[in-house]
């Protein structure tokens, strides 16, 4: 789905995050798709804003995503 319609995928990721549904995965996957769409700044803000909703074990992965987004 992401390859076919990244904008629709981002909307679904936002819905999952706001619903508290698999926030770790949704936030990470959304950030990757946003980067592919040249929306890195938006992805950085999303990760910063919603990382507190993610589990402790997801924090290192989110750090790595942020590092990649800043490149």
From TrEMBL:
UniProt keyword annotations, A-Z: Coiled coil, Nucleus, Repeat, TPR repeat
Main localization (coarse): nucleus
The keyword Cytoplasm is annotated on this UniProt entry: no
Location in the cell: Nucleus
GO terms for cellular component: nucleus
Record protein name field: Pentacotripeptide-repeat region of PRORP domain-containing protein
Species whose genome carries this gene: Nymphaea colorata
């Amino acid at each position: 789905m992401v390859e076919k319609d990244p904008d629709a995928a981002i909307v679904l990721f936002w819905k999952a995050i706001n619903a508290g549904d698999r926030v770790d995965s949704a936030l990470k996957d959304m950030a990757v798709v946003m980067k592919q769409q040249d929306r890195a700044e938006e992805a950085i803000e999303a990760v910063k804003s919603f990382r507190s909703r993610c589990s402790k074990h997801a924090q290192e992965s989110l750090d790595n995503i942020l590092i990649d987004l800043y490149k």
